[in-house]
């Protein structure tokens, strides 16, 4: 075994946990950057003399870049040492946010959002792979959960902190705050993250072909539908809380904090579940419960107290699914597991885009209060996609156990 491979071997529980929490800090920076911009749009648009629609394109550009860049960059950089890649990506991400902080005009701001979105996409998939590789197999679900606990923490803490910085000082300093978080993570990674080998035996074409792995297409579809189910509601949550719940601005702040707290608890619980249960069965269970929770959320939103309970449980159950999704993809993908994680990031953003469209159609038709029920319907569709993938895999396994008439290559599609 090479020194590099040995350095990336699983470490004892406490040693690896500290490093995984460091990776989570990077995800906290990315989550803050992802969610913070919406609250800064009025001040940003005012200073740069932009319309509301033009200012909103800074969010769109980041999201589209994230979705498109994730699988492409994961393929191009597959041969690089994972630690080296993490350091490079964090520095580029910090530079992108620093450029946002000093952007003199709209064109430079959009460019900075492209740089930040591309580097964020690559960091997310790479950090998950590193966390899995440096952690013992029986704790990998929890490691994946910790990494994405950084993202859920950003919902509860990062966004309010960034928005407060923007209100007290300037929207530019809020981006500077994100850049500082990325640099702190990079310094910690340089000192504490071990060398982890890439996959030098695969070219870009072979890596992109990972989508043809058995169960990969249905796994991506499951993720997309799961995301649509939650974000068709979350995208319009502020309007729902105001018009349906009658929540004031102050009420909405602490209600969103409850959703963030539930999300953090959920992702950690999902990590433990991923280590103890079959990921497919565990995912089916959490998605089924999520469908029920969303269906019940509609009536719950008719009071502030009901909304408080509903949002907490909703955040918990939704995010409990994510470590199970990732654990399952690593199992399905084998040596291409990091590629499937990158494709999964794209599926998440496809789902968020579709959710905004579907939610807009409901809002335009005056059916805003029906969004939770629509979300529950999409979760049922996610269950169907998951079941179809599991059924196809079961048939393939039975076929592999039977005598084969020829030695020809099996079809890798599902």
From TrEMBL:
<protein>
    <submittedName>
        <fullName>MFS transporter</fullName>
    </submittedName>
</protein>
<feature type="transmembrane region" description="Helical">
    <location>
        <begin position="283"/>
        <end position="301"/>
    </location>
</feature>
<feature type="transmembrane region" description="Helical">
    <location>
        <begin position="346"/>
        <end position="365"/>
    </location>
</feature>
<dbReference type="InterPro" id="IPR036259">
    <property type="entry name" value="MFS_trans_sf"/>
</dbReference>
<feature type="transmembrane region" description="Helical">
    <location>
        <begin position="143"/>
        <end position="162"/>
    </location>
</feature>
<feature type="transmembrane region" description="Helical">
    <location>
        <begin position="307"/>
        <end position="325"/>
    </location>
</feature>
<feature type="transmembrane region" description="Helical">
    <location>
        <begin position="371"/>
        <end position="390"/>
    </location>
</feature>
<dbReference type="InterPro" id="IPR050189">
    <property type="entry name" value="MFS_Efflux_Transporters"/>
</dbReference>
<dbReference type="InterPro" id="IPR020846">
    <property type="entry name" value="MFS_dom"/>
</dbReference>
<feature type="transmembrane region" description="Helical">
    <location>
        <begin position="174"/>
        <end position="197"/>
    </location>
</feature>
<keyword id="KW-0472">Membrane</keyword>
<feature type="transmembrane region" description="Helical">
    <location>
        <begin position="218"/>
        <end position="241"/>
    </location>
</feature>
<feature type="transmembrane region" description="Helical">
    <location>
        <begin position="53"/>
        <end position="73"/>
    </location>
</feature>
<keyword id="KW-1003">Cell membrane</keyword>
<keyword id="KW-0812">Transmembrane</keyword>
<feature type="transmembrane region" description="Helical">
    <location>
        <begin position="85"/>
        <end position="104"/>
    </location>
</feature>
<feature type="transmembrane region" description="Helical">
    <location>
        <begin position="253"/>
        <end position="271"/>
    </location>
</feature>
<dbReference type="InterPro" id="IPR011701">
    <property type="entry name" value="MFS"/>
</dbReference>
<feature type="transmembrane region" description="Helical">
    <location>
        <begin position="110"/>
        <end position="131"/>
    </location>
</feature>
<keyword id="KW-1133">Transmembrane helix</keyword>
<dbReference type="Pfam" id="PF07690">
    <property type="entry name" value="MFS_1"/>
</dbReference>
<feature type="transmembrane region" description="Helical">
    <location>
        <begin position="20"/>
        <end position="41"/>
    </location>
</feature>
<feature type="domain" description="Major facilitator superfamily (MFS) profile">
    <location>
        <begin position="19"/>
        <end position="414"/>
    </location>
</feature>
